[in-house]
Amino acid sequence: MPTLVSWAVAGAARPTTAAATAALRSERMEILPRERWANTWRDGRAKPAILSIQTWGRLSRRPTFVPKACRSARRRCRNDRQNALLLACSPPRAGLPASLPRCGTPGKRKIVISRDSHRERSPSVGDRMSQVAELINRIETGLNAEEGPAQEGAPQPEGVFDRLVVALAAVAQHYGIPVSPQALVSGVPLEGGRLPLEHAAAVAERAGLQVELSSADPLSLADGELPVIAPTTDGRVYVLHAIVRGSRHTPNAVVVSAAGAPDKRIELPADEFKRQHGGHMLRLRPQTGIDERGMSAVPSRPNGWFLAAIRANRGIYAEAILATAAINVLALAMPLFTMNVYDRVLPGNAADTMWALAIGVVIAAVFDFAIKTLRATCVDAAGRRADIKLANFVYGRLLAARLADRPAPAGVQAHALRELETLRDFVGSSTLTAFGDLPFLVLSLAVIFTIAGPLVLVGIAAIPIVVCTGLLAQRALARHMRSAFGETARRSAVMVETLVGLETIKSAGAESWAAAKWEQAVSEHIRTGLRIRHLSSLGVHFVHAAQMLMQVTMVLVGFHMVSAGEITVGALIASTMLIGRVLGPLHAVARIVPKLHQARLAHQALADIVNALQELPAGALFLSKSSFLGRFDVDHVTFTYEQEAAAALRDVSLSIAAGERVGIIGAVGSGKTTILKLMQALHTPGSGQVFIDGVSVGHVDPALLRANVGLLQHGADLFRGTIRSNIALADPGAADDAILRAAHAAGALDWIARLPSGFDTVVRERGAGLSAGQRQSVALARTLMRSPRVLLLDEPTSDMDGRTEQIVIRRLREYAEGRTLILVTHRPALLDLVDRLIVLDNGRKVADGPKAKVLEELKNGNGKRPRVASVAAPGTKKCA
Distance between CA 880 and CA 871 in Å, rounded? Predict the structure, then answer.
C-alpha cells in the first residue's frame, strides 16, 4: 500500500470525506456498507482480512495485522452488535454513504479490509502499519463528523463523555433537574470513557430519575410517557421528544434530538427512526418527591442501605425459601421409608413394595440434590449481585465524602472496606440454609408426634435447654468479637502506616519501633481470637452433645413404649432419625452465629463511611455553569482544620480578576495551601465564603468546578499504573494529542521520550521508580490535562533542578495565557510567572499589591515586617 502509506505520512489533519475517498480509490479501494460487502463476498470478488486496532490508549503500542479467512471475517462482523466498516479492493461503484455505521465494542475498533484476490500485495508491518492505522482513524473521525443529525452542530460539553450520559443529563434538565454530565459520571467506573449499561440506573438515580430498560416499541408510547432515550444500531443516542401521528393515529414522524445537541430538534420519518432503533429504550421519570426545583446529584439514602441491596434480589430469595420448604419435605422420605420397611415390608416379606419404596426414595434423593444445587447457585448469584451493588455504593460514598468528615484513619477505613467480604459471606447460601431450615424443625416435631405420639416431648424439652445455653455463650462471644474487630482495625492501620512509610522507617533506623508497634497490635489480636474460637467451639460442641443425649433419651423412652405396644419399632427408628432434623438447624445456627456478630460489626463500620457527610448533600441545588471566567473573591474567610486548635486562616479577604496571575507567599503554616483547597471546594470555610465568577463555590457542582479549576498540591500522589494512566487519571479515554500537550507543558515529555517504554513505563505505588522531580512533572501534567480555566499551583517545581524549572516556567507562561493563575511558592524563579503578590502570615493577609512593590517592601522591611519565607526578587542572590 505505498500510496496509502505516503498519504498517511503526509499527515493531512482530519481529511474530508472526499479526500479520504480519493486516496482510497487511488489504491483501488473504496468504503462499502456491510450489505454491499456481503454481496461482494458472495460473488467471490473479495478476500477480506481483519485489522484489529486498539484505541490509542498507549502511545507506544502499535496495531497488529491479522489475516482471517473470508468466512471467519464475515461471521465476526455479523455477530458484532454493530455493523462493520469495509474498505474493499475493487473498482469503485458508488460514492461514500452519508451515514456509515461503526463496528466494535467500547475501547476497540474493528475494520474489515478486503483486497483484490488476483493482485495481493503484502501490507507493510510494524512502523508503517501504525501509519495506516492513523489514516484509518482519521478517515473514521471524518466520517463521524458527517454522521448527520446526530452530529451536525452538536456542541460538545467540557471533557469527553459518552453520549448516553449527555442524554441522561438532557432528560434530567427537561424535568427541571439541573445536573451536568460531569456530576453524573463522577465516581462511576467507565469502560474506555463509556458508561456501561449496568451502571445506567445508578447514574440516572444521581440525576433524580427512575430508569426502566424497555424493549417496547417507542412509537407505541403515549405523549405523556415522553421523552425517552433511544439508542440506535450505529452508536447514536436519540432523545425522543414527540411522535407526529397521522389522521388514523398512525406514527408518521418523530421529533428527536441528538445527545450532544439537546436544543436542536429534528423531525425524522417514522420508518427511518424504526429502522435505526436498536431495540431497547430507557424510560425515565423523576423520583417520588422530586419537583421542578431540582435536587442533589447524589440522592439521599435511607439507613437501610444494606437491606435495600438484599431487597433488590427478593424474588430469588423468595424462590430459595420455597426450595427450602421442598427440601425439608423431601428430607422426610428416608425416615418414613425406614419406618415402612421395618413395620410393613419385613413382616410380610413384600419385595415388590420394597422396590417401589426404594425407587421413590431414590427419586426424592435426586430431586433433593437438584433443588439444593439450584438453591445454592441462585442464592450465591444473588449474593454476588448484592455484593457488587454494596461495594460500588460504599466506595462511591467514600469518594463523595467531605475530606473534613472522614470517619477514621486510612488503615481503619481500609479494614472496614475489607469487611464487605463478611457481608457477602453472610448473605450466601450457608446463612440461608441455616436460618431457612430453622422454622421447619416444627415440621419434624409434627411428624414425630404423628407416628410416635408422646415421644415428641423429648425433642420439645431439649430445644429450650439448647437455645438458652447458646444465648448465654453468644453474649460473651459478642463482647469478645467487638474487641477483636477493633484490634483488627488497629492492626490494619499499623500495617498500612508501615508500608506507606517503609522507606522512612529504614532511613531513620526505626525498625525496632515499628516491630514493637506491630507486635503489640498482633499479640492483642491473637489473644482475643483464641477466646472467640474457644467460645464458638463450646457452643457447637454443646449442641452436638445435646443431640446425642436426646437421641439416647428417645431410644430409652421409645424402648418402653415399644414394649408396651404403644408404637412400632419402625416408628421408634424413624423418630430417632427425625430428632436429628430437629437439632440439626440449631447446630447450623450455632456455627453461623459468629458470622452474624461479625456481619453486624462490619455493617456498623461501613455505616460510618456511608453516613459520613457528603459533598453533594440531599436536597442541595447545584449550579451547572456552562463556562467559567476565572474570577475569585474570598470574603472574610476563617477556617480551622478538624481537631486543630489554631485557625489556618483568619478573616482573609481578597479578590483575583479573571486572567490575573497572582503569587501567594508566606512562612510555613501561614495558610497558603489552605486557601487553594478552599478555592477548589475541598474544604468548607468555617465562616465567610469563596466565590468564583460571583457564585459561591459551595453552590457549584463540585465535579464541574474541579474540571475547570485545576489544583496541583505539593507532594501530589501517583498511582500504580503507567505514566499515561497517571496523566489521564480523570479521563482514561483521553486523546493522545491532549496527553502530549499536557506532558510538554509540564516539562515531562523530554524525559519520558528517553524512557525505553515511553508513556507505558510502569509506575509503582506512590510513584516509586520515578525521581521526585519526575513525579512532580507527571502530577503537573495531570493538572494541565483537563485544560482548566483556573490554575492553582502549590510549589509546582520544588523538586526540579534549575534547568528543568526554567523549561517549566517558560512553558507555563505560554500555557497560562488567558487563564487565571494562582501560584504558591518559596522559589524566586517562579515569581517571573506572576504580576501580583499576596503575603500571608499566621493565617492573615499582611500584604497585597504589584509584585515589584511588595518585594521592595519586604526587602527594605518598611513598616511591620511579617514572618515570610525566604523569597527574593528574580535575579537577586540574597533572599528576603
Answer: 5
Residues 410 and 537 occupy one common structural domain: yes
- Span of 109-113, 281-285, 386-390, 821-825 with lowest mean pLDDT: 109-113
Contact between 23 and 722 under an 8 Å Cβ cutoff? The reply is: no
What confidence score (pLDDT) does residue 90 get?
Answer: 30
Domain final residue pick, 258, 286, 314: 286
Cell, residue 723: 505514566
Q: Mean pLDDT score of the chain, rounded to an integer?
A: 71
Q: Which three cell numbers stand for residue 290?
A: 422530586
477 and 594 Cβ atoms separated by less than 8 Å: yes
Give the start-end residues of each E strand in 232-273: 237-245, 251-258, 265-269
**Confidence at 791, pLDDT banded by 50, 70, 90:** very high
Whether residue 640 sits in one domain with residue 606: no
Cis peptide before 227 (omega within 30 of 0): yes
**Cα distance between residue 724 and residue 736, in whole Å:** 9
- Do the domain assignments include residue 497? yes
DSSP state of 349: T
Cα–Cα distance for residue pair 758/59, rounded to 1 Å:
8
One domain, residues 719 and 777: yes
| Residue 621 pLDDT | 60
pLDDT tens for each residue of 689-731: 999 988 888 888 888 888 889 999 887 788 888 999 899 888 8
Compute the residue count for the chain. Answer: 880
In this predicted model, which residue has the larger pLDDT, 231 or 20? 231
CATH number of the CATH domain containing 517 = 1.20.1560.10
DSSP summary character for residue 277: B
**Which residues are within 8 A (CB) of 519 and not within 5 positions of it... i.e. 6 or more apart?**
none
Q: In which domain, by residue range, is 10 found?
A: 2-144
Give the C-alpha separation, 145 to 188, whole Å.
Answer: 28
CA dist., res. 463 & res. 455, Å (int): 14
Total domains in the fold of the chain: 4
